[in-house]
Write a structure and sequence with these properties.
Strand content: 5-15%
Radius of gyration: 26 Å
Number of helices: 16
Oligomer: single chain
Strand order of the largest sheet: 1-4-11-10
Shape: globular
Number of strands: 15
Helix content: 40-55%
Length: about 500
């Protein structure tokens, strides 16, 4: 499945910033489908140690009996015929234990098989942007890591000498630079997908979707179903001629952290309007509390930290040490809710309430508290429910600001808020802490929350994690309507 909407045009101009990219051919409404695409390849992360089935990517404990090379799961008896036949012959020249002994090679071997196959070779050429410069990556930390764990082991394996079709089609590209290029293309073009059964994180390569440049406030949303088919749709209205963007980093990180992640994983220097705005769209997700005045916040512009109110300067060394220490403390909390709460109290005097590190702490607290509520054998604790509501109320506006339009993250956060909101309302009503009319009022609020959350996921495939969430929201909606019908008619 490779479908381009007529609302999208592929631009191959020599744009120094984007290279090849996609634009809106006409005005696009929010929710309009732009691309539908099956993956060129679904594979494992470099660091994956548990072998995965060559066909379905679930955990594997056996080896294909035909090629004696690729792992299979207990439910799959065969995998791609081309790669199986290739290794039936290639294992005469290379060790059949190559993948078992160095599973980090799995992704690049799978991509080499796609390139070696004449039927899929042309699709691979479209993965390379026309502004790709290999020398920009040379001698970086990522380059050295790939050299040690991927490139050199593969060159010494003898596998490259078996790639006859690739040699004929493209000339001899079986050297170290070629393998480095493939590693970078996998890193730069991969979308995170989840395996169907275990939900383990995998990498999916999509030819058309890879043409979307990055923006920290994207105008598209991505939906991937259980069969790894991708649908790209407009998250917000897009005017004709505007570039179609995706986001390749965590929107709930601060600017410095997002940019570091993009440099590390995709060699991108983002200059989007959010990255250029020291206030991060007035969210202040990177702002520090000023130490010289009671209500001011210091923002960082060109490496200089200055208070917006009193203009006082904050020492950049102090700011960096504070960020490092807070990050380390959060990492050492080990899921302990009391530790998270203490860290939140401690660092609230240093950071803006919306600071990405405080948001991270709040998310962690909310997650732990949900687990407590789910696993408790007793009636839900009202204080825990109220705390979760407080946290969600602080997180939701930030998510809405940095991910406008159709947003899965915002929809999920709304759903989490809905669960605690409904449960607390029911407990308060049963214990007679609120009268019937107030309970009915809360049910109406819950109805609106559920509707908004469900609407934000209305374009998600039914057989996707978000599609399953839509069905859970529908169950909540039914329960809300039953309660309203019961109490409004009394």
């Amino acid at each position: 499945m490779q479908n381009f909407s007529e609302k999208v045009i592929f631009t191959a101009d020599n744009n120094a910033q984007f290279g090849r990219h996609l634009k809106a051919a006409i005005d696009v409404e929010a929710g309009d489908v732009l691309i539908e695409e099956s993956p060129l390849l679904v594979t494992t992360h470099w660091e994956c140690e548990q072998m995965k089935c060559a066909k379905c990517c679930e955990d594997s404990f056996v080896i294909c009996k035909k090629c004696n090379f690729f792992p299979l799961c207990m439910d799959c008896t065969e995998h791609d015929p081309f790669e199986c036949e290739f290794f039936c012959n290639a294992t005469k020249a290379i060790s059949k234990n190559l993948l078992i002994n160095n599973y980090a090679l799995n992704s690049i071997i799978k991509l080499l098989m796609v390139i070696e196959n004449p039927k899929s070779l042309d699709s691979c050429t479209n993965l390379t942007p026309n502004n790709f410069k290999l020398n920009e990556y040379r001698d970086t930390e990522m380059w050295m890591d790939h050299a040690t764990n991927i490139v050199q082991p593969l060159l010494h394996s003898g596998l490259m000498d078996c790639l006859r079709n690739l040699q004929k089609a493209k000339g001899d590209m079986r050297d170290a630079d070629f393998l480095h290029k493939l590693c970078i293309l996998i890193d730069a073009n991969a979308f995170e997908v989840s395996s169907k059964v275990t939900g383990d994180s995998l990498k999916g390569l999509y030819v058309h979707a890879s043409k979307m440049p990055h923006h920290c406030v994207p105008n598209t949303a991505t939906a991937i179903d259980d069969d790894y088919n991708m649908k790209i749709y407009a998250a917000v209205p897009i005017k004709a001629g505007e570039v179609i963007y995706n986001s390749y980093t965590n929107p709930l990180m601060g600017t410095v952290q997002r940019q570091h992640h993009l440099r590390l994983t995709r060699h991108i220097e983002c200059q989007c309007f959010r990255c250029r705005d020291p206030t991060e769209l007035d969210t202040h997700m990177s702002s520090l509390k000023c130490k010289q005045c009671p209500d001011g916040y210091a923002i960082c512009s060109h490496g200089k930290w200055q208070c917006l109110d009193c203009q006082a300067i904050t020492d950049p060394v102090f700011a960096q040490k504070l960020l490092v220490q807070a990050s380390e403390d959060i990492g050492n909390a080990n899921g302990d809710v009391m530790t998270y709460e203490e860290l939140l109290r401690k660092y609230s005097s240093d950071f803006h309430p919306n600071h990405f590190l405080l948001i991270d702490i709040k998310q962690n607290i909310a997650t732990v508290l949900r687990a407590v509520l789910i696993n408790s054998m007793r009636e839900p604790n009202k204080d825990i429910l109220r705390r979760r509501l407080e946290l969600c109320e602080e997180i939701l506006p930030v998510v809405r600001a940095v991910i406008p339009g159709y947003s899965k993250l915002y929809a999920i956060a709304l759903y989490e808020y809905l669960l605690s909101f409904l449960e607390l309302a029911e407990l308060d009503f049963r214990s007679k802490e609120i009268p019937k009319d107030m309970y009915i009022e809360k049910l109406h609020v819950a109805r609106e929350i559920a509707l908004e959350s469900k609407d934000l996921l209305s374009f998600e495939p039914p057989n996707s994690p978000e599609g399953h969430l839509v069905r859970r929201i529908a169950i909540q909606q039914e329960q809300i309507e039953e309660s309203l019908s019961k109490f409004e008619n009394k």
